[in-house]
């Protein structure tokens, strides 16, 4: 038995579970998309977590080369397990996502293979498809360069067609044209897909296209002639440590003509260019990757929320109550006011992820049948949600980490690692600032189309611009009187109205826009879309869950809407939308009070359910890998046990004691003795 | 000569320097507090940067035990240099601050020694003072425990007085009472000052007091009997890697009675307690440490601003202009709108730091002469500024890092390291959320005192509550008409008025306060104080600098005030303060537009000065240690050179190729072959 302090921790979390009314298994199945998917998750998690290859205990103590070596071992083992257990590709993806360590093969599976499969010609597919699926070759996706990231049109690598030999010559003309940041390129990948400027005979520049290229020998993994490869070095905050993000330059490297990914655009033998049917046909891949991100962000927030809420439930600090115990920190307003909104966003983004997945499937089918009209809408929704959800998850993980107090800065708390590995998501797959511009541009276009339409009606509106329906109503002031902070419909109306005001104002001032307009408009439009979806989820809850669970999750999603409104207060107030009266001179009245009071009340109502709501994420201790988030609440024992694994604790004397520390101390002692002799 | 792309980089930064009108050396001297201090800085920076012991190139590749061993080497060397060069303690501190690596001796110098010197009795000082000054012993400050951080009153470690032997017995009764997070404790320190509950004969508990204790033998560094020491393990995001933050437990360890730090409180031989003259007399140390933080935060922001502004000046991306070049990214509104406000905060906090230093000296003198009335004000100002400046610096470093785009995630960009080492500042020396509570409590008290005063006048107000002077004026509406975004006085008035509104409202609703009230009130009060100080700086500028420089820095500080107002818009709008008209129904007018336009205009005006304003921070390339912030602008060459130092690039084949990667590839190739044989 542990000392009294820890027994109390265990007691606290146990009691919290007893008090929570939520049916954990039912809500968990709902979050996983059904009991079957939860069972699948459990089965795979058991296999992976019991395998010593995936043990996480030593990771914090390995240097990068060791972490990388270890990742190869993991990649090999996970593939063995896939074959042993006959995992489907969904099951295999699930297993990879459980490793809690981004590895090179992720880039093969999520970037290289999908692009190749979607855009290679049939002969190329026949030759390499099976090799790719079975990891007989490993690929990477070579897009960004040292000098260019989001601006694909300005990439410098060239692919010049040589009609004589029917080859392309891949070349890196400058230092800045070196491919850079490419995951898996430095040491792992044998092949790659290169984005390069297509140059036709006579020097005609066609713009960026994709080319399949072999990088290393399949015999001995040696680098092929004309290619220079290397690792770009370690990443910030110890993130993505095990991935060999690499650089590459090409010195007039020849590849066969049929290595151009030519499902859409083609070059004839003589060097004529054949345009793709739709200029943006090849963007499907990027949209697909982005579509996954909302859901992933939701689960990232869920991890942080679980750790922080469990710890805040067992951590006691402050004056002692009548029971002789200090107060559980989760009962402090400044703590629950940070953690419950995070929990609500985890639920909202996970559910949004489900939905985007469904919408994406429908749209993909239409796209496959040649209907490219859906591309713009898909692009807007996935761009907006990608920017919103990654900005949010990055921020929420850090807010949760800070709520852990001092111990949050320990590696063993687990949230530093989560933050570092999540952080590049704000930049990759489209820098969020660039995506905001595109979302805003689409919103302006949708607005102009709608107001110039001869017979505007709600049926003309796509989901991303549904808020424009408010233009059809003449009720500008109706809302003011009717708003209720407990009615989700009102909250959504308000968020839609805010989106409309911002877009309208932006259209009117497009030529003298302020410097943050794109960010604010994009956020307002995307939050309006998300809120409308959340309202749909709320309506569907009673059919999916028992009454108590449905009601609790309705409250949680209402908290999501309320805190979204709170973060939108500047917009609401500046456009004279409720909350309340803010006329000049009323300096002692704060019209935002009622919103904040509603948030506080809802937090207090949800507080007893917070442990159940986090348990419903279904994370095992192995998955969370956090001393502060252990299921049984024995956080201090866990921190203590982990500290014993630190290599410094296995050394009798500190490294460098004799040469440095002893010398320093002795010299100081002599000086002090000399001084005291002087006295 | 480098390739064309890089020559252009060098050209861009050179041209930017030519265009900047600022007199870099004059502004630099101003920021350093005078030419003498700049010269001192240069001299010491030269010594340290040229010494191979402080070479930074290998740090990213060392594991923690190596980084720690290396830190001992640095500690020994810096002390040698101190003696060789006869550095004053200020010069020595400067040298330590340049190491860009938090090391254990920092805790000796900044926590252990000041507390010991301020609170030890004269006999103890005579015995150990010289040893401490000369690093003949190294100390740590043992306050936080596994179970308790900010709530010092609940610490569990006991110091029980034994009258028979005139000793104290230091004891750790529980797992949670173990000292934890103590910098330098695990492997470095020979001695420490322990916070422990004083227990007198008969079991009378007196509360936490400080005791000096020896931890390790000075002969062989072995741990003394009854003491268990160890390292708590690695820290999040690779921060504070080289420091051996430790744990300790004490098993009835006896120390002599005169090892209690008894300058203020004492215990007689028979076990009677003698109270200190002022209950908070011993808080001076904490206040001193916090007083340094505003300035340190300012310089942290300065580093991030320098890196990001230099990179944004040479990075080109987007459509090509008439000169055939892409656009410098700093000219994009979404970029300069992020970076120039950061620059303004660097200046504001550096200058605030100077000022707090001066105020602190005056207050210290009064305190030394027994006048403890100043303690409360010192506590409020330093707590508020500590919370504000560390929240700001943490955020600004990350905003700057994101403005670097993809390359910002490279270790070589330097901002990840800056972020990780700065991050604990939001938690240590008082968790910011706890400090906010204290600042708000002080503001409520000041308000109540003032309004209940018989003859309230401005002279009664301390600097932290100067905004209460607005209560003396009957001009609630006067401001509305008069506001000018270019007049700093108006901006400060508005920030003071906002503070007053928030405090008033909070006092009126103290029993139904919302959950974030403490944070908002504390921020408003502290920003009001900071703004009033900034106004003083602006007035003093013409005497300190030439007209052009003074005018540019006035603009920069005005930008600080404007962006502070922008971040306060919810408060301003909700209390009906300007900007403008926000009455319901005016849905297409945005009253915040004029403020945002003013910010944009000022940013555009300052843009050509941004390189000069960052050069004036005087950072050498060695100090910044950032490939993206190199002085000559050759960022891509620097990234390239750094990448060559990655150990993975020195291995012919990846570690684990034969055992794992080759096995994986071969198996996949066989499977693919089997499939194609089937067809």
Radius of gyration of chain A, in angstroms, nearest whole number: 28 Å
The CATH architecture assignment of the domain at 286-460 and 488-584 and 591-615 in chain A turns out to be Up-down Bundle
Total count of strands of chain A: 13
Structural class of chain A: alpha+beta
What's the end-to-end separation of chain A, in Å? 57 Å
CATH H-level superfamily of the domain at 286-460 and 488-584 and 591-615 in chain A = Butyryl-CoA Dehydrogenase, subunit A, domain 3
CATH class descriptor name of the domain at 286-460 and 488-584 and 591-615 in chain A: Mainly Alpha
Low-confidence stretches of chain A: 581-588
Shape of chain A: globular
What is the percentage of strand-forming residues of chain A? 5-15%
Please work out how many helical segments of chain A DSSP would assign.
22
Residue-averaged pLDDT of chain A: 92
The biggest beta sheet of chain A, please?
A: 6 strands, mixed
Multimer state? homodimer
What's the CATH topology label of the domain at 286-460 and 488-584 and 591-615 in chain A?
A: Butyryl-CoA Dehydrogenase, subunit A, domain 3
Largest interface: A-B, 170 and 172 residues
Helix content of chain A: 40-55%
């Amino acid at each position: 038995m542990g000392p009294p302090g820890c027994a109390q921790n265990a007691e606290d979390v146990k009691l919290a579970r007893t008090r929570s009314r939520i049916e954990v298994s039912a809500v968990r199945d709902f979050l996983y998309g059904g009991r079957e998917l939860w069972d699948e998750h459990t089965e795979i998690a058991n296999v992976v977590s019991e395998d010593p290859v995936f043990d996480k205990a030593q990771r914090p103590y390995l240097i990068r080369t060791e972490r990388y070596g270890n990742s190869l071992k993991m990649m090999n083992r996970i593939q063995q397990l896939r074959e042993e257990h006959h995992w489907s590709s969904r099951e295999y993806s699930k297993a990879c996502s459980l490793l809690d360590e981004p590895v090179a093969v992720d880039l093969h599976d999520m970037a290289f293979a999908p692009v190749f499969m979607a855009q290679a010609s049939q002969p190329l597919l026949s030759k390499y498809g099976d090799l790719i699926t079975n990891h007989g070759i490993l690929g990477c996706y070579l897009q960004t360069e040292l000098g260019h990231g989001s601006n694909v049109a300005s990439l410098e690598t060239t692919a010049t067609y040589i009609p004589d030999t029917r080859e392309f010559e891949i070349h890196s003309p400058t230092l800045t044209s070196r491919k850079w940041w490419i995951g898996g390129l430095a040491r792992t990948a044998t092949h790659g897909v290169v984005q390069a400027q297509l140059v036709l005979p006579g020097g005609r520049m066609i713009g960026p296209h994709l080319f399949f290229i072999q990088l290393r020998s399949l015999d001995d993994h040696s680098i092929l002639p004309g290619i220079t490869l290397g690792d770009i070095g370690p990443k910030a905050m110890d993130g993505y440590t095990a991935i060999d993000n690499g650089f590459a330059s090409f010195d007039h490297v020849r590849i066969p003509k049929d290595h151009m990914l030519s499902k859409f655009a083609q070059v004839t033998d003589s060097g004529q260019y054949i345009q793709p049917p739709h200029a943006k046909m090849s963007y499907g891949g990027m949209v697909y990757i982005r579509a996954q991100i909302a859901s992933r962000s939701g689960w990232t927030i869920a991890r942080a929320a679980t750790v922080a809420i469990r710890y805040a439930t067992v951590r006691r600090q402050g004056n002692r109550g009548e029971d002789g115990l200090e107060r559980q920190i989760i009962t402090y307003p400044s703590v629950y006011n940070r953690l419950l909104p995070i929990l609500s966003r985890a639920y909202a983004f996970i559910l949004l992820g489900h939905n985007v997945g469904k919408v994406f499937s429908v749209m993909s089918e239409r796209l496959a049948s040649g209907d490219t009209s859906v591309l713009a809408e898909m692009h807007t929704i996935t761009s907006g949600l990608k920017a919103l959800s990654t900005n949010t998850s990055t921020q929420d993980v850090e807010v949760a980490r800070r709520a852990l107090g001092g111990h949050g800065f320990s590696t063993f708390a687990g949230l530093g690692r989560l933050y570092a590995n999540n952080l590049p998501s704000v930049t990759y797959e489209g820098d969020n600032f660039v995506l905001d511009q595109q979302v805003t541009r689409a919103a302006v276009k949708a607005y102009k189309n709608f107001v110039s339409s001869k017979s505007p009606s709600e049926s003309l509106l796509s989901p991303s611009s549904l808020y424009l329906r408010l233009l059809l109503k003449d009720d500008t002031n109706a809302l003011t009187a009717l708003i209720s902070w407990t009615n989700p419909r009102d909250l959504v109306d308000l968020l839609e109205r805010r989106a409309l005001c911002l877009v309208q104002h932006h259209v009117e001032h497009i030529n003298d826009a302020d410097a943050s307009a794109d960010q604010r408009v994009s956020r307002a439009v995307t939050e309006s879309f998300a809120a409308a979806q959340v309202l749909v989820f709320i309506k569907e809850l009673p059919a999916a869950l028992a009454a108590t669970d449905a009601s609790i999750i309705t409250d949680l999603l209402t908290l999501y809407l309320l805190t979204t409104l709170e973060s939108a207060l500047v917009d609401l107030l500046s456009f004279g939308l409720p909350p309340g009266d803010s006329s000049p001179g009323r300096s002692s009245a704060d019209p935002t009070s009622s919103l904040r009071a509603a948030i506080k009340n809802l937090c207090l109502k949800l507080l007893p359910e917070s442990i159940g709501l986090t348990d419903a994420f279904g994370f095992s201790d192995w998955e969370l890998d956090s001393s502060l988030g252990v299921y049984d609440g024995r956080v201090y024992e866990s921190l203590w046990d982990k500290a014993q694994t630190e290599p410094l604790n296995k050394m009798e004397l500190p490294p460098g004691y004799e040469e440095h520390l002893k010398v320093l101390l002795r010299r100081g002692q002599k000086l002090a003795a000399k001084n005291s002799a002087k006295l």
